[in-house]
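User: quick one, fold this
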Amino acid sequence: MKALRQIAIIFPFIGLVACGESSGPSVSTVSKVDAPATQAAPAPIRKKIGFVMKTLTNPFFIEMEKGARRAEQALNIELVVKTAAQETSIEQQIQIVEDLIAAKVDAIVIAPGDSELLVPVLKKAEDAGIKLVNIDNRLDAEAIKKAGAQAIPFISVDNDKAAYNSAKFISEDATPGTQAAILEGIRTADNARQRMEGAKRAFAESKGVKLVASESANWKIDEGYRVSKQLFDKYPDIKLLFAANDMMALGALKFLQESKRTQVKVAAYDALDEAVAEVKAGRLAVTVDQQAAEQGFQGVMLATRLLKGESVPALMLIDTRLITAATFK
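Assistant:
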């Protein structure tokens, strides 16, 4: 009977411990247990930034992407790079932005092929909560205002000033009556307009220079060749030629070599490897290094700052420099 009473006393105690119904603090009665596996903190979700360029047929934009990729590694973000087929493929660029909106990217960095036509779709991106950064070619401020969109921070170079310096370089020693011509970019692009105006100003300030023609070759090497042929057929005495980008200048140089016009000074813009080689060879007088990679890098950096809620400058200008034969001495 004594043993039964002891069992009766012990069982209720065991029941209380097993059910955990004690009003006191919870105490483990196990002398040793394996420590639970440490739960790794979930990796932060990387921000997704769309990077939209005009094309990759122009090496300038290949360099721009390199700079953007450098920022991607430094910032641990996901970069979604998209390009149109040609610099004139504006509708394709608009569709790319539509696709990025559907993909719910956090920000878009864009080098627009047109300064006005891209504004409506970018307003749609803004309405979707996507942060925007404009690089290379500036979007039209009036078009942005009419669309009811917010001002978009812009990163580029002083295109007017750099083009002025390039054209000035070839016109400084011009004799009275020297004829000059300009190969323009896409006329609806703000950077094309600025480069054209800078070159015109340089020629106008050179008393010996007479500007006889200014025609668009749409940034393309083949059109640079074709338009140059047309210009020289009409004005065979042209001695100075400013091309608003290297691609058009390379097309012009090909025509000049084939037609054995060795006395024409050509100024260009972009400092592509091919153009720099032409400067070294003495066939191209000057080109402009506008640091394409740095523009891409800073564009992604600025987008990241916007995503953090930081204030950013409305305008960021990257330095330029002239590449001439003297650069390699």
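User: anything notable?
Assistant: The mean pLDDT is 90.
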